[in-house]
Every structure is written in C-alpha cells, then in structure tokens.
Amino acid sequence: MIEVENLTVRFGGVTPIDGVTVAFPGGTCGLIGPNGAGKTTFFNVLSGFVSPAAGTIRAFGENLLGMADYRRARWGLRRTFQTEQAIEHLSVFDNVALIHEHSRGKRTSRRRDVLEAMSFVGLDAPPREKVGGLGQRDRRLVEIARAVVGRPRLVLLDEPAAGLPDEETEHLAKVIQRIPEHFGALVILVDHDMSLVSACCGTTAVLDFGKLIASGPTAEVLRNEHVIRAYLGTEDEL
Amino acid sequence: MSVARAPSQERSGWARLTVSFDQGTAIRSAVIAAFLAVALFAVPLTGGEWIKTFTSVAIYSVVAAGLGILYGRAGMISLGQVALLELGVWIGARLAYATAIPFPLLLILTGLITGAIGVLIGLPALRLSGLHLALITLMFAGAVNVVLSATNFPNGGGGFLGHIAAGDLSALNPVRRPEIAVGDTAYYRYVVVACAVMFGLGLLHVAGKPGRAWASIRESEPAALAAGVNITLYKLWAFGLAAFMTGVAGCLLAAHGGFPTVYGFATQDSLTVLATALIGGIFSFWGAVVAGVFNQLLPFIVKDQWGVNNNFLIVIFGAGLLWSLLTAPAGFVQLPGDLKRLGRFIRQKLKGPTAPEGAR
Q1: N or C, which end of chain A has less CB nearby within 10 Å?
Q2: Is the pLDDT of residue B10 over 50?
Q3: Dihedral sign computed on CA atoms, order B304, B308, B314, B315
C-alpha cells in the first residue's frame, strides 16, 4: 500500500505535480495520463531525484521521503527508465548482480537469485554476454530482471513497452502480471499502451496537468469521461 | 588494508561463477603466467641500463592502471596522477630514512598515506566532472610541483623535510632497497612482483562489486542512484584505490633511483601518462602495460640508444592519441582484434564479390 498525500512539486514557476492525493492498494497499479501530466516526475519523487515542495508518501507504513536516495534501493524500491538504462559495458549477469548486491538479497544466494530473475523475465541471452550487444527486446528484459531481483517491495516501470512490437508487448504483459504474486512487490506501471495497462493493472490512477483526475478499478477509470476528454482533447481545452 | 577486503570476500562466489561460465579464464591465466615468466626471466637478460628502464616501465604501468580505474572504469578524469606519484616518492623516501620497517610494509604504508591524499583530491569530483575536474587536478599537480621544488626530496637529512642541501653530499646514502633485492636485476624482479600484486588488486576490484558500481556510475549517475549505488562512496573509493596504487609505485620509484629529484617530474608528465594510457588502452590492464612501455621504454630507446632528442615523441604520442580517439577507443589492445577483422575482410573480398557474411 502506497499512500500519497497532498503531494506538490514545483520547478520555478511550473507545478508538474499539484496537490495529488492517491493510494496504490497493491498488485499492479496503472498510472496514466497525457504527456507532461507529471507521471515521470512522480516516479522521480519516489526515487529521490526530486524533492517535493509539500506532501507525504507512506510506503507500507514507512516514510519514503525521509530515506536517502541511494538507500531506497536497499529498502526495496526499483525503477526502470523511459530510455532503458542497462549498463552496456557489463554482462547480463553483472547488470542484474549489481542491483542484487545493493539490495536486501542475501549474498550467499546471489547467483541463484540473479539467474532466477533472468529466467523469470524469459531472458535466454547468455549470462556473460555484454548488454551492449543485445537487441531492444533483451535489453528491456534485462531492465525488468534488474527491477525484480533482490526482494523488491515497490517496482516502478516507466513505459516498459515503448518501442516494442506487439507480440513482445504481450510477453512483457505476462511478465509484469506475475511480478506481484511471485515477488510480493507492488508494481506501478506507467504506459501509453492502454491494452498493456488494462491487461496488467487492477486499479489505475490518471494524472492530467499535475492533478489527479480519476482513480479506481481500471475498467471504470478508462470509461470515465474526464479521462477520455483528457486523452482525446475537447473544444474547451483548445 | 580495508580497501581490498570486500572484493576478496566476494571472490569465493565469484570464482565459482567464472569457472562455470567461462572457459576463457584458463587461457587468460595461462597468458598472464607466460607474460610474468617472460618479464621475470627473459627481460633480465638485457641487463645494464635496459633493466633499469624496464623497472621504470613496470612502475609507470601501475600509474597507468590507476588512471584506467579512474577514467576507464569510473569515468572520472585526473591530470594529477604524476603528482601523486611524486608524493608517493616523497613519502616513501621519508619513511625509508626515518624508519627501519620492512620494505613491503613501507610500500603499504606509503600507499595508504597517498591513498588518503587521493581521496581528498577526489572530493571535488563529487561535484565536478570532465574539463573542470581535469583543470582542478592539473592545478593540484602544479601546486605539488611548486611545493616540492621548494622543499626538495628527503636524502637522509634531519627534521620533517629530511633534506640536506649543503655539506658533504657524497656521504649520503640512497633510499634503501629491500634486503633481498639490492642489485638492479634483483630489484627489477622485486618491482615486477610488487606491480603484479597492484594489478591483481585492481583486477579484483574491477571484477567485483566496486567494478560493477563504477560501471553503473560511468553509464549514468541517476540510474546508478536508482540501483542503490552509493555514488559518493564509490567515487572516492576509485580515487583512493588509484592513489594507493600510485603511492606504492612512488615508493618503488624512490628506491629505484635512490636520490629522487624534482626534475624527474614535470606537471605536464600527467598529460603524457594520460595520453599513453589512452593509446595503450584505458579499459584494459594490458593497456596499462603498453602505456608503461610507451612512457618509459620509448624515450630510453630514442634518447639513450639512438641519441635523438626525445621531444619529438610528444608528436608521436599526439598522433597516437588521435588514432586512438578517432578509430580505436579501446587503444592498442584492440589492435590484434581489428587486424584479424581486417584480414578476414580482405580475404573475403579476394574470394569474390558475394561474401557478405562475417565481414563484420
């Protein structure tokens, strides 16, 4: 359970997140909204890259904002980035092991945990292969493997399907769906692919211009007329 | 030596992994063993001034290896490494005259003190990078040179500075060498072993947790932070380790020459060392060996063997740097692979026009 209360972020005169109060109950939760709605900024607040002007975030009862940024990974926070950030010069194994050795995962089970995470995401590239030599699909899977290794509590996925062809997005959806039960982590998924969001997410929250305009069961939210208007645009917005 | 502890504990699990994944490990170990055998037994046959030069080659290759860790692994530039070497020489000489501790302990102590200074120099790197960090470290190198020009190196005198400027200078003893390695050839072997240990220390780091953390910092600091890497700790660790290795090299150098002088070090030497490290291969420990050869052996051959002014080497290094930066980012060590690819390409071209496969 992630409880966000009255969260506000300001960059100079811009307010990318404006008094948002929302809860992510568990399982896989969607976070959607048009470009510039504040989704990535919200992830940046959770990761500690951005300090909010106001508001609190309680993650499973703990005050997330009181934690030093690099300690959040050890606590169990994982994130992927819009542009995938696996380390080109390291092997697939080392990429995943890097996360494990800064996590709650036990050193003695590191090798097993890393290989398990790789097979969980369906990655069949050789462990010693350098990530720089992998294709787009495998790089994405390496990133997901990095996000689930070492007993995560909260997994933030920022547009994991961007740029992937449909059949690979389907595979990704199956992987994401299984994260909560397999690792016991809460997943927040940001994506523009509504079929991916509805396939994975039980509940979804919608941001528009930094404000929460809807949240609840995904099917209901996607029928909400405010949401449709925010996405498609109407006369009064123009 | 707390610096080395983490990766060596890491090793048991790591070694198992490498063995099960990689048959290349055996070949690599064999190549390293063969290289060390040549260095220890074939090279001493050259004798005389050559052996002294090869001692310097080994020492400067450790300096280049430190740069490789800083720039090649962690992505931080330093133009102050020769100044750190100079400090290592000063500290090593001072400790050698002041105490009677065994030589290995002298090396470690010098390394630790120089390492602590390296961490201090690394502090600006937490806020600066690229050109600005290069400038700051170059200024540091200049400052060290100015101070040491005034204080000079210890030569057996009293007081903190330990330098005698006047009087009967012929009565002075050189910086002591280890008892088991007083002669030039014996000392060369001693230096090779010590340098091999330094390379091993670097290798353990790079293959372990610190190496992965450095790679992630070099790739992207936000992503490293999200991965839980303590960026401050690992950046300072890289500076500390590079300075430790350089300090040990400095202590070896102090006993090599015996009477170090400030003329042996110029501020611009840091630039030459970086240039040769880039030409040799900044991402590889073999590249550091090549850098040591370029830095010490080439000037010796050109100047002392051929009697040519070795300033023109700067031009050669410049051209080499251009070649490396433009076409071979991994430096000299990628040359064999490149030539193999070129050979394959030419052979396929000769076979006929329909040979698209495998040319790349």
Answers
A1: C
A2: no
A3: negative
Q: What is the structure's pLDDT at B359?
A: 46
Question: Structure tokens of B169?
Answer: 């200078």
Q: Do residues A153 and A185 touch, judged by C-beta distance below 8 A?
A: yes
d(CA B291, CA A10): 50
pTM higher than the cut 0.80: yes
ipTM of predicted assembly, 2 dp: 0.86
Specify whether A59 is located in the same domain as A91: no
The mean pLDDT value for A99-120 works out to 92
Residue numbers in A near B216 (CB within 8 A): 87, 90, 98
- Could you give the number of structural domains in chain A? 2
Task: List CB contacts (< 8 A) between B227 and chain A.
Answer: 73, 98-99, 102, 146
In this structure, are A220 and A162 located in the same domain? yes
Cα A57 to Cα B58: distance, rounded to the nearest angstrom: 56
Comparing A154-158, B26-30, B211-215, the range with the smallest average pLDDT is: B26-30
Question: How many residues does this entry show for chain B?
Answer: 360
Candidate from A165-169, A190-194, B180-184, B350-354 with smallest mean pLDDT: B350-354
- Judged by DSSP in three states, A10 sits in strand
We report the CATH number of the domain holding residue A189 as 3.40.50.300
Helix, strand counts (H, E) of chain A: 9, 10
Examine the domain organization and report whether A159 and A132 are in the same domain.
no
CA distance, residue A110 to nearest chain B CA (Å): 9
Is B228 in Cβ contact with A99 (below 8 Å)?
A: yes
Among partner residues B13, B223, B229, which is closest to A110 by beta-carbon distance?
B13
Is B116 in CB contact (< 8 Å) with chain A?
A: no
Closest Cβ opposite residue B225 in set A69, A88, A128? A69
Domains and CATH numbers, chain B: 36-329 (1.10.3470)
Segment A227-238 shows an average pLDDT of 65
- A36-85: pLDDT as tens digits: 889 999 999 999 999 999 999 999 989 999 998 888 999 999 999 988 88
Domain that holds residue A89: 84-150
Q: Report CB contact under 8 Å: B13, A108.
A: yes
Do A70 and B228 lie within an 8 Å CB cutoff?
yes
Residues A156 and A229 in one domain: yes
